[in-house]
User: What shape does this take?
Amino acid sequence: MTPVLNPIPEPEKFDEKCRKPGGLWLRAHPTAERPRDLWSPFRHALADGFDDRCGYAAMYIPSGTVDHGISFNEDPLLAYEWSNYRFIDGWINSSKSKQVAADLLDPFEVQEGWFEISLPSLQLVLTDAVPAEFRARAENTLKKLPLRDDERILRPRRKWLSLYEKTGNLEMLREMAPLIATAVEKKLALEAAHAPAPGNQ
Assistant: This one.
């Protein structure tokens, strides 16, 4: 997880096309188990706000989903609120659907340096930079969502690292998978610090 711009500007016509008709739908269907999807037409605007990266995996995804930060089951009144939407990968969204929002870290809360990728394992871990008041939820997020070392997330991490190793393009890696880029930069800095000084070889 990496910092995400908050708030993301609300798209033009969102109120007209989603919030208002969504409110009418809620009043007409007070016992509905699932909300009517009126938000999908605005998915690309949400993706732009997340730089086309999954809010939890912090990697580029070609086609993510609109996640309700607070689920319909927890608060139906937030189903059509722009501020409640997060852009995340579909399979992670499915894993999150049964979790209580208050037990998880919101992508909008994450600050720089709270998470890092360990090399060579490519596991996602917490750092000491996570403040005490957020640490329990951060740990629970790694426990409840398949972010640490699930094979479905390790495979794209391996792919991005492999592409970097083939091209040497660190700027590309920063854009597409910033946590992996940071891990690579840390590794390069350590190697440079331990390299023999010129003339001592």
